[in-house]
Write a sequence for this structure.
């Protein structure tokens, strides 16, 4: 008997294998994309912290902004809104969260622990927030 082509069973098996490989590939790709977005978000948070540190360092030395240092050492913290960092061009004004594509707002909280420790946190609210919400 002359056999030309594939049987229906062989075709179904091949299609099932290709579909399963595609499914596992899509799941793996979605995890890679999610991890990439998380890494980018963490980089943005670090950039905002650096911008807050830069703002504090520059502006606390100016006479009109001497209250920054005074507040830090008397109350133990200074709150710098991200909108202020955007206004002085230390942060991109269209900075978006890669996870949900929303504009990033909030503030940088600078906390004075002791003479050797100043901590910078990014909070989602302009007035500061509880430590467990800050990055």
């Amino acid at each position: 008997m002359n056999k030309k082509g594939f049987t229906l069973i062989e075709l179904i098996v091949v299609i099932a294998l290709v579909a399963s490989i595609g499914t596992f590939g899509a799941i793996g790709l979605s995890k890679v994309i999610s991890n990439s977005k998380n890494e980018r978000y963490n980089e943005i948070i670090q950039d905002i912290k650096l911008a807050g540190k830069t703002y504090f360092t520059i502006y606390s030395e100016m006479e009109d902004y001497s209250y920054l240092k005074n507040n830090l050492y008397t109350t133990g913290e200074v709150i710098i809104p991200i909108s202020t960092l955007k206004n002085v061009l230390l942060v991109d004004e269209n900075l978006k969260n890669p996870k949900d594509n929303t504009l990033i707002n909030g503030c940088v909280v600078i906390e004075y622990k002791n003479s050797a420790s100043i901590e910078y946190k990014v909070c989602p609210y302009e007035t500061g927030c509880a430590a467990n919400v800050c990055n």
Q: What stands out?
A: The longest strand covers residues 107-114. Helices lie at 8-59, 67-75, 82-87. The radius of gyration is 26 Å.
